[in-house]
Design brief:
Chain lengths: 441, 171
């Protein structure tokens, strides 16, 4: 519009002053808009960093939930490790600059202990926290103050910071159809129609003795509460013909007993008979499981084959540091035993436990075993499921007895309480069995 | 004509004000864009580190001591371009697999201290009998360099160093 034709008193004489006024109004708007790019972007990034840290904490915690009272204590301790920055490494937030769970200047953040839940529904709803050994899921919530750059000039956020929250839920998965990294033992199901426990009784201590032929059959070992029933077992073939570092079969069965079958590079870790990974076992396996070739059952009350006692030496590392010095006749002859023994550390609790919930160890004494249709040392076996046992020390002792001529050891049946290291899902249709730790939220 | 003169004068002062404020405004906007770009790049890198850590820590028999191990190579490729066989387009240019470091850690059972786990036996050399690590830290030790481009203001490259520590869950 042409201002020259307007009356004098309506003419905008001080246009410069007007533009300053506009600027004064515009600056908060401008800062608000810039804040969307700078501050909101930073808030989202911080939420992502907190989410990563929470996921790590929940995963670390859930791996420790092994169905004991001590498990929950260990889980709370383990949850702190992903945000531990004492070594200069660890998850932080705000461009990796601020430690989580600490106060830096005016910015505070909190990393409380995880909450534990029995069911996934409870964990996701955040209600009905479990205080007992039945916890299977860990839920972590992290809260941290995020600094604001431009929005701090707005009256809504004059404190210069805003609280950002992120959480994660991790816990046991559905039962696995393929599990890896477990001990290469097979037990026959007492009762195949019992899909929950295969006829075993939870909390009962059994003597597992190597399957043998002839009479007299070995008897069960006693424990402090009396006699135990003998359950025969077999060593399943997990000999890796391509193992360069440990070609000797006794070394390999030692490793299987010491911490479960180690994961092997897929390029050279396949079984000769089935082409499946050495460390893994499948339910309803298409290629039948066979007995370890040099561990065929012998006459009862006669010495078991060397891979069986080598595996027992390996399992003994869960109770003591140097089985080869204690049991020199059996364990010291294993190839590379002096290299292998220092790798494994004993459990923190090596005492006899008659109730699983009071077991205060770190899970080293837990073994996961294949339950097969029937023990068949000369033919194939079909895996029905996997169940877990707590190894018990030999009567009145704190170790196993690898030289036992029947390969016997005591173990308490505990069902499927602890997550296994690794495995895959499938369509094997099992309703019970061990799972692995996965992120749920 | 006085009124024309006055109007011309105020037009002139408005032009001077614009001359003062416009560069400031442009610098502010350019700076905003650059800060947002750096934030976005940092978050992308952070997500890459997380994806790598999660991928590699759920692998079967990964030898983390060997940078040429198939699982490690696949994990780095998955982080860098979203495919395990390195066939995808790089998400961030100039970021290469050798810039990414995987630190192996073990928690001392007695003291609770987090120690680096050496590629030895006993240690984390899984190919020679060692045990898998308890935790892994995936990081960019030398950082990913981003240079903010703001006209007339010389800027130094900023090294972004995201790191992620996750529990190792594989065998």
């Amino acid at each position: 519009m042409d201002t020259r034709n307007r009356p004098n008193n309506l003419r905008p004489r001080e246009r410069g002053a007007t533009s300053i006024q506009i600027l004064v109004i515009l600056v908060p708007v401008l800062f608000g808009l810039i804040g969307f790019a700078v501050d909101l972007g930073r808030l989202y990034m911080i939420r992502g960093e907190l989410k990563t840290a929470a996921s790590g904490m929940a995963l670390a915690a859930a791996q420790r939930l092994i169905g004991t009272d001590q498990g929950m204590v260990d889980a709370s301790t383990a949850a702190k490790v992903p945000i531990d920055t004492s070594t200069g490494f660890g998850n932080k937030y705000d461009f990796g600059g601020l430690a989580i769970g600490q106060t830096t200047g005016s910015l505070s953040s909190s990393a409380p202990d995880p909450s534990f839940y029995d069911t996934l529904q409870d964990a996701q709803a955040g209600s009905g926290a479990s205080g007992g050994s039945t916890a299977r899921y860990a839920q972590v919530t992290l809260t941290a103050d995020a600094p604001l750059t431009f929005w701090r000039f707005l009256p809504l956020a004059s404190s210069g910071k805003v609280s950002v929250q992120a959480g994660a839920v991790a816990g046991i998965s559905a039962p696995l159809c393929t599990v890896c990294g477990i001990e290469p033992y097979a037990l026959a199901a007492f009762d195949q129609s019992d899909t929950a426990d295969f006829g075993f009784v939870q909390g009962t201590i059994y003597t597992l003795g190597y399957s043998c032929t002839g009479v007299p059959a070995p008897s069960g070992l006693p424990y402090s509460g009396g006699a135990t029933a003998l359950v025969p077992y077999l060593l399943l073939d997990r000999l890796n013909p391509n193992d360069v570092a440990f070609p000797d079969e006794n070394s390999q069965s030692f490793r299987g007993g010491a911490a479960g079958m180690p994961g092997v590079n897929p390029a050279n870790g396949f079984l000769t008979n089935s082409g499946q990974p050495v460390a893994c076992f499948n339910i309803n396996n298409s290629t039948p499981e066979v007995v370890w070739a040099n561990a065929l059952p012998t006459l009862c009350r006669n010495t078991v084959a060397s891979p069986v006692s080598s595996a027992l030496c390996g399992m003994d590392t869960r109770f003591e540091a140097n089985p080869s010095s204690t049991f020199s006749t059996v364990c010291s002859g294993i190839a590379s035993v002096s290299t292998l023994e220092p790798v494994y550390s004993p459990d923190s609790d090596v005492a006899e436990e008659v109730a699983y919930a009071s077991y205060s160890g770190n899970g080293r004494r837990l073994i996961t075993i294949s339950i097969v249709d029937a023990l068949n040392p000369t033919g194939g076996m079909t895996v029905l499921g996997f169940r877990q046992f707590l190894l018990e020390p030999n009567t009145n002792q704190t170790t196993l007895t690898p030289p036992d001529i029947d390969g016997r050891f005591l173990a308490m049946y505990v069902g499927s309480v602890a997550p296994v290291k690794q495995g895959n899902f499938g369509s094997c249709g099992v309703a019970a069995g061990p799972g692995k730790v996965v992120l749920h939220d | 004509m006085t009124d024309t003169f006055a109007s011309r004068k105020s037009r002139g002062s408005a032009a001077i004000e614009a001359a003062i404020f416009l560069p400031v405004l442009i610098l502010l906007l350019m700076g905003t864009l650059e800060i947002a770009r750096i934030t976005y790049t940092y978050y992308t890198l952070h997500k890459m580190m997380y994806a790598l850590a999660r991928y590699v820590s759920t692998q079967q028999g990964a030898n983390l001591c060997d940078t040429a191990d198939p699982a490690v190579v696949a994990a780095k490729s998955f982080a860098l371009n979203g495919t395990t066989d390195n066939s995808g387009t790089a998400i961030l240019s100039d970021l290469t697999a050798d810039m990414i470091s995987i630190r192996l850690e073990q928690v001392d059972a007695a003291s609770g201290a987090i120690n680096e786990c050496a590629c030895a036996v006993p240690g984390c050399d899984t190919s020679n009998g060692g045990l898998p690590p308890d935790y892994i830290v995936v990081s960019l030790p030398n950082g990913y360099s981003v240079t903010p481009h703001i006209p007339l203001i010389p800027t130094n490259p900023i090294a972004l160093r995201p790191q992620v520590r996750l529990p190792y869950g594989g065998t």
